[in-house]
Each structure stands twice: as structure tokens, then as C-alpha cells.
Amino acid sequence: MHRRNVLASLGLGLSVPLAPFALAQAAQASGRRLILVELSGANDGLNTLVPFGDDRYFSLRPRIALDSSSLVPLNKWQGLNGELRPLADSLDDGDLAIVQGLGYPGQNRSHFKSIALWETGGDGMQAGRTGWLTDDLLTLDGQSFDAHGISLDGGMGIFSASDGTWISLTSLSQLAGLAETTFAFEQTGTGATNAALGLLLQRANDLDSAMSRIKDKMARTRNTPSARIQGGALGRQMGLALELVAHEINTPVLKVQLSGFDTHEYQLGNHENLMRDLGQSLAGLRRGLKQLGQWDNTVVMTYSEFGRRAEENNSEGTDHGTAAPHFVMGGRVKGGLWGDHPRLDRLDDGDMRHTMDYWSLYEAVLSDWFGLPGNRFDGHKDPRLAGLFA
User: Fold this and answer.
1) What predicted TM-score, i.e. pTM, was given to this entire model?
2) 36, 222, 230, 337: which has the fewest C-beta neighbours closer than 10 Å?
3) What does the alpha-carbon distance between residue 338 and residue 144 come to, in Å, rounded to a whole number?
4) Rg of the chain in Å (alpha carbons)
5) For 298-324, how does the pLDDT look when each residue is reduced to its tens digit (9 = 90+)?
6) Where are the beta strands (DSSP E) in 104-192?
7) What DSSP string describes 267-286?
8) Helix, strand, or coil here: 347?
9) Considering only CA atoms, which of 349, 350, 302, 334 is closest in space to residue 49?
10) What's the distance, CA 387 to chain centroid?
């Protein structure tokens, strides 16, 4: 077997980062998990959490502003995009939090560079070397996870690190495993004479073992949710996530993605469709997890590379901007608005000033959800997020 064929075969989903020991211990002890939802392309925060009580919003967006009658009202001057109405039950039950004005200093406007910053906890100038969940933590040793993290959309940047078993799994058909590939590679003897390829073989075997464990669990258990999740491609990913949870696949982190948010032209219709898929998918996931008794030990969090500019462009769309709100949901999440909405009368060259550093939310997730004080974001605790997690 040629080396290039081996590498192509491993495209199934081999990733080498190792879940941090402290994170793994905390997740195993509490059964807590995190489901990360990437809004790829940069979601427009102003048409997601709409400041309808601010006249400047309508002045900045004469053609794409949303009328207050179409919104889900939150208070006297803010409302959610009406396509997020499926989240009304979560709002009423108080387990949907909206963290306002998230961003970082010196906003990078490149999709590629900025999403790398968000996924690795970069400082606004340079991406980190590892995913934000894995930096500055001990390596995992002897923990009983089926996988340390699973991406259900194929993206693995957030799981970058030095070692371990993180899986890219976009459909259940991929559970066939890598046994044939690894066996053929072993027969070449290359691993014994080439240290780098030998390490690759070892990790291929680790991945095959992980896939086999997951496949066996899926075959043994029949505890599947009854509801099918709407919401297009994101709904299908959420359905797969729900199936993994239902079959007791033991992993502290799952990652999904909704793409299409780069709305430079004719934003209204496109963004409404995206909001509809997001609302239906999040609501369906919530119903399924509640049915399984897993809502209280799950947090769902959205993220995106940046927000959009406050003012609409000449194509009835919005260009790359800065700050945006993000959702945090879960049975132990205290719902409501958190932080401060960026002021539309204090724009920097047409951009909103971020009011909360995204590192602060990462710090809260690690310390208050996973029970990891002293994590790599320890110096960035924001008192405004105190009490976000029960």
C-alpha cells in the first residue's frame, strides 16, 4: 500500500489531539457534555438579536431591518428574529441564554483566520496552537471515553492538539472502521522503519478501535429518540448527535455546523432561512435530549468567526464586521440576556464595539460548566457571566 493511499484512507476522520486530562476527568465525573454549533460565514447579530427600540437600527438598515411585529419580544427594545420562534419554549423555561457583544480586540476579517482564532482561542493577532478546549491542560491517560470529541460536520480545527482520538464522523456509515486499511499498512512494514508513519499507523489503530467501540454500542442499544429533527443539514447533524447520546457514546464534546452566513447580497431571505434551520434544529435537539433525560448535563453553544457591519451595503446585504451575540442553552443554563448590547451610537468606522471578550465565555464554560478553575483563560473571568451555569 502506498503512503498516499494510507493518508487518503485516514481522511475518514483521524485526528491526533488528546482531550485534556482535567477536562476528561470532569466530564466523566459529571457526565457533562458540550455541543458546539458553528455558524459558518459570520452570522449577522443585529438581525438575530434585534434592537428594534433603537431608531439607529432602522437608519442603518433602511431595507433589511426587521419590523418589531415579526420578532419574538424579549424586552421593550430587543427581540429575537421571528424565525427563531421554535425556541420560545426554551425562552419560557429559562434555559436559553444570549451572550451579547462577543468579539475580540483587533478583529480579523478573514473567514479562515478569524475562525481559526475562535477555535483555538487566539489573541486577535495569532491563532493558538491547539483547540481552546485542550490548551494548557494535562494529557488524558486511562479514561474510558469512546472518543474525546466528535465532529459531525467534518471540521476538526477546534480539536487541534498533540495526541489522542478525536473523530470526524459525518454519517453512521463511517462506522465500518479502518481495520482493512491498517492491516494492509501493517503488511508493508513501513511503520517499523519510518517513525512518522509508524506513529500514523498507531493512531489509525486507535481510531479504528474507537470506531469499533462506537459501532458496538450502536448495535447493542435501542434507546433511540422518536422525533426526527427538522432544520435541513443542521437538523440531520443534530439528529446524529442525538443518536450518539441515545446510544450512550461517551464523549465530552460534539461539534456541528450550519453554513451560509456570508450574506453580502440580498440578506433578508437567505438569513431568514438560516434562522429557521437554526431555530428548528436547536429546538429539536432540546426536545430529544429532554426525552432522553440528558438536557440537564448538556450545554449547547454557538460560535462564528465574526459579526456583520452595522450598516447595510448597496446589495441589500451586510459585510464583514465585529461583535455578535451567541446562544448558550442547557438544562443547567440560566436563561436571559447576558452582557451588554453594543451601542449603535458609538460605532468605530461603521463597526460595533465588542462589549465582551470571547475568552470570557470560554473561561466560564471551562471553569463553571466543566469544573476547571485555573484553565488557560483564567485571567479573563468576566463577573457579568457569574451564575450562567448552575
Assistant:
1) 0.88
2) 222
3) 36
4) 21
5) 999 999 999 999 999 999 999 999 999
6) 149-151, 166-168
7) HHHHHHHHHHHHHHHHHHHH
8) coil
9) 302
10) 21
